[in-house]
Structures are given as C-alpha cells and as structure tokens.
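hiii so um. not sure if this is the right channel but i have a protein structure encoded as tokens and i wanna go backwards to a sequence. like what aa goes where. can anyone help
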C-alpha cells in the first residue's frame, strides 16, 4: 500500500490527517461557541481548558499535515479543471493553512497576554508567548474571533466546491479524498477518471 499521495489521489495518510483536522475544527468550533455562554464556575474552566487543549492539538496536527503535504506531494488537478479554478483552489488551500495555524496561535496569544496558565490536557504546562498586556489581549481576542468566522467561511466554500465538483461536474475531486472501499471501487474510479 502506497501511503504517499499519487498524481491522481490523496494517500491514506493525507486522508486521515484531513478528516481528523476537519473533525477537530468542528469540535473546537462547537465548544468555542457554547463556552462563552456558560456560567462562571468549575465546569466553565474545564470546558475552556478542553477548548485550549484541542486547539493546541490542532496546531500540532496542522504542522504534521503541512510537513506531510510537502513530503508526499499533491495530486494533479482533475483533468478538465479550468485554470482559474485551480488558482482559486490553491489560494483557498493556502488561506486555510494560514488560518489553521493562526487560530491556535491567536488563542495562545490571547491566553498568555490575559495572564492565564496554559496546559495540554492537564499533562504539562506550555510557556506564555507574551507577557500580560491588556491591549495585546484585546487584539488577540479580536483576531481569534474574526479568524474563526473567516475560517468557517473558507471551510464552507471549500466543502461546497468539493460537492459542486462531485454533484454537477461529476469528477473525482471529492472522492479522491475518500478512502477506497475495495478493489472494484478503485477500478471503477480509474475508469471514471479516464472517461
């Protein structure tokens, strides 16, 4: 089994990292939206700690994902894809990576400049990346909140484009990021790609 990406498909490692990051972002987003309305108390502190730990996990996974992408390469664009769509997809992917790094980092900056300790699932402490500073804290909070909405918009656009290609263009853009179920599926996909 080839773990790396091929010219026509994302490999299993890229697929695993992609879908893990998708689920992690969805989980962090839901927790982030819910936690702001919680009443002060120990449960709110636990939820905030979980949000922060998952955010740090996202930061590490995105770094691994980017390193793997650089090592394993990327598939060629699906045959027949207009050049402007290739450019838009490339810009969108770049913006998604920037935001997937920026969200945890702005959260870490907000946490540090607010003077809060940062732990990863209670196992170890991480250093502050800035001294306590109210102005910086407000800036980091604003960047974190606005970055979330921008990330959400790009994720929706990215998913919509994949479904558009699948449903209306009838090409392999979406399915090549999905695991193959068996050899017959792989052969059917190869035939579909040729046609």
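sure thing!! here u go:
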């Amino acid at each position: 089994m080839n773990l790396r990406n091929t010219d026509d498909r994302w490999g299993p490692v890229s697929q695993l990292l992609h879908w893990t990051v998708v689920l992690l972002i969805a989980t962090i987003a839901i927790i982030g939206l819910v936690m702001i309305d919680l009443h002060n108390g120990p449960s709110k502190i636990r939820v905030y700690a979980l949000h922060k730990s998952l955010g740090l996990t996202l930061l590490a996974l995105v770094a691994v994902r980017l390193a793997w992408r650089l090592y394993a390469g990327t598939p060629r664009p699906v045959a027949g894809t207009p050049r402007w769509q290739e450019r838009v997809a490339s810009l969108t992917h770049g913006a998604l990576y920037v935001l997937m790094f920026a969200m945890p980092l702005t959260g870490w900056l907000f946490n540090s400049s607010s003077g809060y300790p940062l732990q990863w699932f209670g196992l170890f402490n991480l250093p502050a990346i800035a001294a306590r500073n109210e102005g910086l804290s407000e800036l980091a909070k604003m960047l974190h909140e606005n970055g979330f909405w921008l990330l959400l918009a790009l994720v929706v656009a990215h998913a919509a484009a994949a479904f558009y290609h699948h449903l209306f263009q009838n090409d392999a853009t979406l399915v090549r990021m999905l695991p193959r179920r068996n050899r017959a599926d792989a052969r059917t996909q190869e035939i579909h790609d040729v046609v």
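oh and The radius of gyration is 20 Å.
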